[in-house]
Amino acid sequence: MGRDGHRWNDCLDGLLGGCLNRNTLLFGALGLFLAHQMVIAWGRSAVWADSFLDPFLFLPVALGAAGWLLRRWNAQFRWRIPFILGAWAATSFVFEYWIPSFDPRFTADAWDVMSFALGASAVAWTESRGK
Fold it and tell me: For labeling, which of 6, 46, 48, 53 is most exposed (least CB within 10 Å)?
């Protein structure tokens, strides 16, 4: 038995034994995104971070911020898995097909679709737990 009488596998342990919940995911992803943007602004770069970090963090930040605001009105609000899948599909289409069709600064990349999927999976994990 872990914290609060739950079994250890009911909780994805994070730093210092804390659980990964919706707020931790949102503010952790937002902080990491902002830190990465500051590093870019300072003229530093890491190819893997520039290519995959922002797509990975996009859905946790976008859905997390919207969900956080919606929970101010309704504390029981949760994103449903079909909606999260739709958000992943729409995000992938827009950023990997539509925008690259007219803006040469963007390139279509299947790895970004996987990064979006990993971010959506993190959102789905925390939403399914309802914490």
Answer: 48
Give 60-79 pLDDT, tens digit per residue.
999 999 999 999 999 899 99
Radius of gyration (C-alpha) of the chain in whole angstroms? 16
> In the chain, how many H helices and how many E strands?
5, 0
Residue 43, by phi and psi: left (phi above 0), alpha (psi -120 to 50) or beta?
Answer: left
pLDDT of residue 130: 65
Quick one: which of 28, 16, 99, 17 has its CA closest to 60? 28
Task: Compute CA distances 83 → 49, 86, 89, whole Å.
Answer: 27, 5, 10
Q: How far is CA 28 from CA 43, 82, 113, in A?
A: 23, 24, 21
Q: Which residues contact 63 (CB under 8 A, 6 or more apart)?
A: 79, 84, 87, 123
Query: Where do runs of H (alpha helix) occur along 42-109?
Result: 47-48, 54-73, 81-93
Structure-token pair, residue 75: 């504390």
**pLDDT higher than 70, residue 35:** yes
